[in-house]
Amino acid sequence: MWECRSAQPGISGRSHQINLRRLIISSTQIINLLQESPLFQKVKDSTLVTLLANTTRVKLAAEQILLTPKQHNDRIYIVLTGRLRAQLNMDDAKPLALFGIGECVGEMSMFDDHQGSAYVIATTDCELLAIEHVDAWSVLNKSLQASHNLLALLANRIRATNRTVAEWQANAQNYGALNYVNAVTGIYNRRWLSANIGRLILRHIRGQEPCAFILMKVENFGQIDSGFGKLGSEQAQNSIVEALQQCLRPNDVEVHLEADQFAVFLPQTGTDGARAVADRLLEQIDRMVIGTPSGDALPPVMLSIGINLPQPDDTLDTLIARTLPAMHRAQN
Predict the structure, then answer these.
(1) Which stretch of DSSP H or E encloses residue 264?
(2) In whole angstroms, what is the distance from residue 133 CA to residue 169 CA?
(3) Are the C-beta atoms of residues 275 and 222 closer than 8 Å to each other?
(4) Whose CA is closest to 222, among 183, 185, 184, 259?
(5) What's the Cα-to-Cα distance from 17 to each of 14, 60, 121, 163, rounded to whole Å?
(6) Which residues lie closer than 8 Å to 270 by C-beta, 6 or more apart?
(7) What structural domains and CATH numbers belong to the chain?
(8) Contact of 249 with 101, CB cutoff 8 Å
(9) CB 95: neighbour CB atoms within 10 A?
């Protein structure tokens, strides 16, 4: 259970310069991380040790740009610490994808004339492992497991892209007319989750994969609404969604249940992973300074968060009912 602390102001900027230096993280730690990463999992230790000897470690500050569209790129980057995001345009409100520890970026350049296809930006301070494409190809040629991993990784990226395109098409066809989208925040609403939660849970049961559910309540929503009116409360809701989208993966599903209540469905995630997501969200909310269009600063948003693991026979109502006690303990 968690409760959000007061948000603190922050300053960020963008830069194309990349800082290369040796970071304080041991080779053994990196090997262990690589063995758990989607690209190199189950690859032999000896292969990874040889690969590591030819790598460079990179540090990025928050909002620093790693890759841009059409930029020449001859490296794959593995996230050691922090988070990256990919987006088509610099001013996009919602990223195409988010990348956490162990995940990689830059692999598409191996097949696309060494050119990037999107902006890749550090969402937080990051430490990365840079692997030259020639060294990555050497591992792929030697390890059938690594080749299988790359194919699976590319397939997942294609599925995520297809899902994004489908969502764009649905919105273009007045998908919101089905009352599945919250009018204020533009994300799925309670009606959509109620209609789809059974399908989401069943998919993971069949695949014998874990999934997690996060329930969140804005404790001081009434104070914001009464003190700053509709514009203030809507700005707070949209800021929470912005924080969610910066902390979640492409497959995660964020839902606006009520004016002061949000939920997240986390596929392929157990309790520890859900706790990590909640911690990242609270840290992101901490850093936010929320203001109205007129320039008035809102009080820091206070969140109570509960986590639960969905059961095979859960409906949305039963899942929320089982998660409420954890959220109430956070409130107290």
Answers:
(1) strand 261-267
(2) 35
(3) no
(4) 259
(5) 9, 9, 12, 33
(6) 210, 212, 309
(7) 9-157 (2.60.120.10), 178-331 (3.30.70.270)
(8) no
(9) 21
β-bridge pairing 253-258 and 188-189:
parallel
Backbone angles phi, psi at 313, to 5 degrees: -100, 15
- Whose tokens are 């991380």? That residue is 33
Per-residue pLDDT of the chain (332 residues; tens, 9 = 90+): 444 333 333 223 333 333 333 334 678 888 888 888 888 888 898 888 899 888 999 999 989 999 988 788 889 999 998 888 888 887 776 777 788 888 888 888 777 666 677 889 998 899 999 999 999 999 989 899 988 888 887 777 776 666 666 666 666 555 545 588 898 888 999 999 999 999 999 988 888 889 999 999 999 998 888 888 888 888 899 889 988 988 888 889 999 999 999 999 999 999 999 999 999 998 888 888 787 666 677 888 889 999 999 999 999 999 999 999 999 888 77
Bridge partners for 264 per DSSP? 214, 254
**DSSP class of residue 11?**
-
CB 56 within 8 A of CB 130: yes
Residues 109 and 219: their CA atoms lie apart, in Å, by 45
User: How many angstroms separate the CA atoms of 148 and 332, rounded?
Assistant: 48
Task: Give, in order, the Cα–Cα distances in Å from 68 to each of 71, 84, 89, 146.
Answer: 5, 13, 9, 26
With beta carbons less than 8 A apart as the criterion, state whether 225 and 184 touch. Answer: no
Instruction: Quote the longest CA-to-CA distance of the chain.
Output: 64
Q: 210-235 burial, b for 16+ CB within 10 Å, e for fewer?
A: bbbbbbbbbbbbeebbeebeeebbbb
Number of other CB atoms surrounding residue 323 within 10 Å:
20
3-state class (DSSP) for residue 53: coil
